[in-house]
Structure formats: structure tokens, C-alpha cells
Amino acid sequence: MTKTWFVTGSSRGLGRSFVEAALSRGDRVAATARDTGTLDELVSTYGDAVLPLALDVTDRAAVLESVRRAAEHFGSLDVVVNNAGYAQVGAIEELSEQELRDQLETNLFGAVWVIQAALPYLREQGSGHIIQMSSAAGLIALPLGGAYHASKWPLEALNESLAQEVAEFGIKVTVVEPGGFATRSGKNPNPLDNGHMATPNPVYDGLRARLAELTGKQPAGDPAAAARALLKIVDSDNPPLRVMFGQGFYPLLQQVYADRLKTWADWQDLSAEAHGDLERAAGGAPA
Fold first, then answer.
1. Is the torsion defined by CA of 175, 180, 185, 190 positive or negative?
2. I want to staple 38 with a disulfide (CB 3.0 to 4.6 A). Which of 11, 47, 157, 248 is the partner?
């Protein structure tokens, strides 16, 4: 069955691959980008099946209007892909207030505006699937990524709440957590060369070198393969709430979650003490 998509951040990278995969199988796509000129090739190839929309997701009014135009143009919305975003890099000490605010405005608030704009249409039709692009960075934290992590971790929680809120309306939610993908020149992008670097403090130069080394060791995923995988998710009758794209970070994630559980277990006595449980068990004063 033909599906209608609304995809943010369609100009390049994974977003572009998602749009191309949907169009190539006969679906219809409202593709958004800050510069619709980057979508001209899609329009030339797929004609009326693609609706190019200029959009900066930080502009809530513009988001509402773009979603309205897409829904009215195609008559329905089946898949809403929150893909627009970028990674601000810098140690916490290095970040300016504006850099941190800009990161949250795009990655977090921009996603919220899209969800809020789409939900009335999805509720009315009693169906729909919201795809939230998160990241392995939404599950773990590495040095120099504090701003990016601070924008991705909330998306994990927000969409987990959302999934429970909208299930009764027939709406599905999936959070996709990619590792590194070859979205630029066929290589895994270097986070230190993405155009969003805080003014460096030399005391963190060693961390920058180690981060570049770690990123370079991660296998670069194929965006086209990711797009094919996403098609399977949106076609599934029972899609996952969360799914990882790529396995490069999986061993690290396993270790991080094992360490968290062990730390909580090791400090259970103190946890009980902080709650007043030990005092009550001993007949002492209530907490």
C-alpha cells in the first residue's frame, strides 16, 4: 500500500536516503530542507510524488504550516520522520550559551514542534507512524559531546512517553538509534570536522585526539541499507519502540548498561539509607 511521508532534513545524509527509498518504491514524500534547491533532483526524477518544502524546524509556526500543506496536498500522513539535526561538539566548559541553545532548539524543540503539528492529523485518521531519529549518542555519553547528548537523551524519554500516549489512537512510535554512517564522501563523518565546533580550550586537546581515534575505528554504515531497513520498520504491523542501526557501538552499549546496573546494585544499601528504609527497619526515626 502506498504511504505518504513527511521527512525533515531531506537535503542529504540519512534523511535523503530515506526519501529516495520511499519514492523509489512508489510512495509519496513531503521532503523538507532549509534550501529546497537541494531537492530539485528529486522533483525532476519523481515529479508530483515529492512535495519540496522549505523548513527550518526551529520555527514552530513554519513547522505547523509545512505539516498542514503536506497533509492537505497528499490527503494523509502515514510516516513522519523527525530527522533534522546536527552535532555540536565541544567540552562543557567550551560551550557558549548560544551554541547550547541552538543545539536544543534544532534537535529537541524542532522534533517536538513536528510531533505536535502532525498528531492532530494522525489522530483524526486513526493511524500513522512517527519515526524519531536519535543516535547511539542518545544512549551513552562521550567526552566533547555534552551538548549533542543533552539534545538526544531527552528525545529518547519524550518518544517513550509519546508512544504510550498515542497508542490508543492507532499511532506507532519508533526511535531509531544509528551509529556512524557514511553520509559524507563515503566515509564515517569526523565529529571534529562538522562545522559545529566550540572555540577550543587547549586543555582538552588530548580528548579531541582520542575522540577522533574512537570515531575512526567505528565501521561506517551504508545509508542506503539504513533506508531499506527503515522501510521494513514502517511496513511492520508491530514495529519496535527502539531499534539500533549498525552494530559498531553495541559492545560499548552492553558494557555501559552493565556498569550502570552494577553501580546501582553496589550502592543499594546507601539507596535504602537515603530513603529511610534502614532506619525504619531498625525501629529508628522515620525519614
1. positive
2. 11
Superfamily of domain 4-248: NAD(P)-binding Rossmann-like Domain (3.40.50.720)
Question: Are 28 and 6 contacting, i.e. CB atoms less than 8 angstroms apart?
Answer: no
Cα–chain center distance at 8: 11
Is 152 a known active-site residue? yes
Task: Fill in the amino acid letter for 89.
Answer: V
User: Residue 221 carries which DSSP code?
Assistant: B
Active site residue 135: no
Which pLDDT does position 188 carry in this prediction? 52
Which residue among the candidates 46, 121, 148, 204 is catalytic per the annotation?
148
Quick one: DSSP state of residue 106? Answer: I
What local confidence, expressed as pLDDT, does residue 186 receive? 47
- Of the candidates 11, 17, 134, 151, the residue annotated as catalytic is 134
Polymer length in residues for the chain: 287
Catalytic residue among 17, 121, 151, 152: 152
CA pair distance 146, 102, nearest whole angstrom: 13
- Separation of alpha carbons 94 and 194, rounded Å: 16
Query: Is 148 an annotated catalytic residue?
Result: yes
Locate the domains of the chain by residue range: 4-248, 250-287
Where would I find the beta strands (DSSP E) of the chain?
4-7, 28-33, 50-54, 79-82, 128-133, 171-178, 242-245
**What phi and psi, each to the nearest 5 degrees, are found at residue 244?**
-90, 140
* Averaged pLDDT in 10-residue chunks for the chain of 287 residues: 96 95 98 97 97 98 98 98 96 98 98 98 98 94 95 97 98 93 55 78 92 72 93 97 89 93 96 81 58
